[in-house]
Design goal:
Layout lengths: L1 H21 L14 E15 L7 E15 L5 E15 L5 E9 L2 E6 L13 H5 L12 E12 L2 E19 L2 E14 L8 E16 L5 E16 L11 E17 L1
Antiparallel strand pairs: 1-2, 1-11, 2-3, 3-4, 3-5, 6-7, 7-8, 8-9, 9-10, 10-11
């Protein structure tokens, strides 16, 4: 009887320990402790359409690009993020939707300095896409918990600098094995749509960037294995009144993009 009771107590305690592990919070931070280079394959495909006169048809284009995305760890727990070997193709279409021209070019190397272990950058003047590729929660999360990461996009309103504000809501959704590694699955809901047009401007501006992201982060090695981002961007502007038509600007632009980054090697 005593042995049976002891066994039941032991099973109960083991169950409690497993339950504790399931509700533990996980801190997310990149391992920048030693100098190395993470090399990712990088692909981006986009569809765009733009209209600059209200009664004109939209100009439509498609583009796709392939290259490498790199994180080169430096001293002081900082890194440089770069896009290299990027080859881009642009297809333009006529009013009937028939492809009329294709251009290809090699894109110059792009570098953003001083990426932190939290996936943020010391300099905020960079393309918003880089904030969406490798985002990390700033606080420990349990599975099922979410943190809103604030984001803002600079917006050029005919010479006036405005900002579109929003967030990437990152949820720690669970764990998945990727290439033999136990990875946290982070799912993001992107919504950057808050913009205020100053009264002094003759044009009303609207801007919206929405989408989703799925990120796979190695819990043991502290680096991203893969990222998948899908975003839709819409920008619309029109004169505030009939009287301001001469001073205001009309524009209607839409873009949808898909970005995939996959770790291919680590150079020590």
């Amino acid at each position: 009887m005593k042995r049976t009771l002891f066994g039941l107590i032991l099973v109960f305690l083991m169950g409690c320990n497993n339950a504790d592990k399931q509700v533990e919070s996980t801190a997310f931070i990149l391992d920048f402790s030693s100098q190395k280079k993470y090399v990712y394959s990088y692909s981006q495909s986009s569809k765009s359409e733009a209209q600059f006169e209200k009664d004109e048809p939209f100009n439509k284009t498609k583009s796709y690009a392939n290259g490498n995305l790199n994180i080169r760890v430096k001293e002081n727990n900082l890194a440089n993020l770069s896009v290299t070997n990027l080859k881009a193709n642009l297809i333009t279409f006529d009013n009937d939707g028939v492809a009329k021209d294709t251009t290809s070019n090699n894109v110059p190397t792009m570098v953003i300095q001083n990426m932190t272990q939290q996936g943020t950058f010391e300099d905020s003047n960079h393309n918003i896409l880089f904030d969406l590729i490798f985002p990390l929660p700033t606080k420990p999360l349990k599975v099922g918990e979410t943190e809103n990461i604030p984001l803002q996009i600079p917006f050029n309103a005919n010479g006036s600098k405005l900002f579109v504000k929003g967030f990437n809501a990152i949820e720690y959704s669970g764990i998945k094995i990727i290439d033999g590694k136990e990875c946290a699955v982070l799912n993001g809901i992107i919504d950057i749509s808050q913009i205020e047009t100053p009264e002094e401007l003759a044009t009303n501006y609207e801007s919206s960037t929405t989408g989703t992201g799925t990120y796979y982060f190695s819990l043991l090695d502290k680096y991203f294995m893969r990222a998948e981002i899908r975003i839709n961007m819409i920008t619309f502007s029109k004169p505030k009144t009939e009287e301001s038509v001469n001073d205001g600007l009309y524009g209607n632009m839409k873009n949808s993009s898909e970005i995939i980054a996959q770790l291919i090697e680590i150079e020590e």
